[in-house]
Design a protein that fits this description.
2 domains; 11 helices; alpha/beta; 28% strand; 300 residues; four-stranded antiparallel beta sheet; Alpha-Beta Plaits; single chain; Rossmann fold
């Protein structure tokens, strides 16, 4: 295994940030740690990258123990934290040269690895990092994390605050890096990004809820989900929550996702109930289960 995490826990005073977490990541795998803010993702990443000691448990990365072999691990991993942490007053090229020098290499030596990414920011190589757009900062940070040709790449919420086009481009870059044999562990609060990973671990309140491929996790959702829509979404939510047969009700984009307690649920009954509540332009139709639906169910 490229990464092995066994029963780690970490507390900060009265806050139990990570609670008996275990998972493994295979060599060359793109693995996602999926959960909302405060779920414990960053704490786990800091433990895996030797920046923080776990209170309990063991971790190995690229075959090295995070406590005994922390120096070796730092030479074999790339880490891109959630917050842009490069030198804002240095130019793009100066930042990249700086990180290459730290690891005893050069831009030229590993240029093929970062070429697909760096060519997009190379026209701005003399611009200060602080003056780059969010998407360009993201590409520079990834280039700096890769410049020493790591075996394992850690990306902690890399697309937070980035526009949709840059997010799409970023995941395409990750897929190309994976093809070069790099193991990638990425964390994200965006449930739609979970579907782009080989396997995922859903996490909430420092605990792993489920680990599997996105397809398998969705497949085992226990109920049919319906998209429900009406003119007044707030009133619709309240009405659905008051319906005696409801199992779960929550907003989902322009719809409300509804599941019913009964196995023989008839949408026409719900239609009549909402009409009696004076709702207008009601629409009810079965919909595809998503990772977010599964997460909402597991996190109950």
């Amino acid at each position: 295994m490229s990464i092995s995490v066994q029963h780690i826990s970490k507390s900060f005073k009265t806050v139990n940030a990570v609670n008996d977490v275990s998972f493994e990541v295979k060599e060359g795998e793109l693995f996602g740690l999926i959960g909302p803010d405060g779920a414990g993702k960053t704490t786990i990443f800091r433990i895996l990258t030797t920046l923080l000691f776990a209170d309990k448990g063991t971790v190995t990365v690229a075959g090295f123990d995070v406590v005994d072999d922390y120096k070796e691990i730092r030479n074999h991993v790339g880490y891109m934290p959630g917050k842009f942490s490069l030198y804002q007053d240095l130019t793009v090229e100066e930042n990249l040269n700086f990180f290459a020098t730290i690891f005893g290499t050069t831009i030229e030596e590993n240029y093929e690895l970062i070429k697909d990414i760096y060519v997009q920011i190379e026209p701005f190589k003399n611009r200060r990092a602080g003056a780059l757009s969010g998407g360009m900062k993201q590409k520079l940070a990834l280039s700096c994390a890769l410049i020493h040709k790591p075996k394992v790449l850690f990306l902690d919420e890399p697309t937070t605050g980035v526009d949709p086009v840059s997010r799409k481009e970023f995941w395409e870059m990750l897929k190309r890096l994976q093809q070069k044999g790099i193991t990638i562990l990425v964390s994200t609060p965006y449930m739609d990004e979970a579907e782009l990973c080989d396997r995922i671990a859903l996490i909430q309140h420092g605990k792993i809820l489920q680990i599997d491929t996105p397809q398998e996790i969705v497949k085992h959702y226990p109920k049919k989900i319906y998209d429900v829509k009406a003119d007044n979404m707030y009133r619709l939510l309240e009405s659905l929550k008051s319906y005696e047969h409801h199992y779960s009700v929550y907003p989902f984009g322009e719809f409300v996702h509804y599941t019913d307690k009964r196995e023989d649920f008839n949408p026409q009954e719900l239609q009549q109930y909402l009409e009696a509540k004076k709702h207008q332009n009601i629409k009810i139709e079965i919909t595809k289960t998503t990772i977010e639906d599964t997460f909402m169910e597991l996190a109950k």
